[in-house]
Design a protein that fits this description.
Layout: H1 11-26, H2 30-37, E1 52-57, E2 63-66, E3 69-72, E4 81-86, E5 90-95, E6 98-104, E7 112-113, H3 116-125, H4 143-155, H5 160-173, H6 176-189, H7 195-203, H8 222-231
Parallel strand pairs: 3-7
Antiparallel strand pairs: 1-4, 2-3, 4-5, 5-6
Length: 232
């Protein structure tokens, strides 16, 4: 309502707009503010923290619960007590006096944020846990990974989970985009999928299609002048 549009090009532009608005609103209150300054007490010696703290234990599924939402952390922290520092937009996880994770803060309650890179080491050692893992759907980074898993299931129900976790381990340790491209190539060719084949193809750049070069033509700004002339 104040600027005629709620579209901002960036968060920085939005913050600059707020700053200018506050300055304009407060311009006529300087005299009253000067009166208040005379009776204000000294500021605290320590700066007020911009976050709240929660001490939580990492559960057996490599997750912590903060503000009624669930977040995954590195599996090496299972069973340990960590400190969650909750900011407006993100949560920092601290362990042994250092920050080990920065996670996007979820709004509301009953939601979850699971990063497969946090738990893949644990799952590779216990592949039997994959079938009943509560957040299993979060372990498919894209539809290509999901299709690959379905292909593995059709080929061998007994080995599908173990083989897929090895592939996901490659994505976490090597390159998620590279593994995805390799899986897509195997699926398109109708070939069998295995962790060994994916690793071999991933290490051989010659087997993958090189990225296509995209050329974007320069914009002719004179066309906008022509539009303006046409309005008149």
């Amino acid at each position: 309502m104040m600027r005629g549009s709620h579209d901002f090009s960036s968060r920085a532009d939005y913050e600059a707009f707020l700053k200018a608005t506050f300055a304009q609103l407060n311009a006529g209150r300087q005299a009253r503010f000067a009166e208040e300054i005379k009776i204000l007490h000294r500021l605290p010696l320590r700066r007020l923290e911009s976050f709240t703290r929660e001490t939580v234990r990492v559960g057996p599924g490599s997750t912590v619960r903060v503000k009624h939402n669930t977040y995954s952390v590195n599996s090496r922290l299972i069973g340990e007590m960590v400190e969650a520092r909750v900011y407006i937009d993100y949560i920092d996880i601290w362990y042994a006096q250092r920050r080990v994770e920065r996670l996007p803060r979820l709004r509301g309650s009953g939601k979850h944020y699971i990063n497969y890179r946090h738990i893949i080491d644990w799952l590779v050692r216990k592949p039997g846990a994959f079938a009943d893992y509560r957040y299993r759907e979060d372990l498919f980074p894209s539809s290509t990974f999901r299709i690959a898993y379905d292909v593995l299931k059709k080929r061998s129900e007994a080995r599908a989970d173990r083989e897929y976790l090895k592939i996901l381990y490659l994505a976490a340790r090597e390159s998620e985009s590279g593994v995805e491209a390799t899986l897509a190539a195997l699926i398109d060719r109708g070939e069998a999928i295995s962790a060994d084949d994916v690793e071999e193809m991933l290490l051989s750049a010659a087997t993958l299609e090189s990225p296509r070069e995209i050329i974007v033509a320069d914009v002719d700004l004179s066309t906008y002048d022509a539009l303006l002339e046409g309005v008149g």
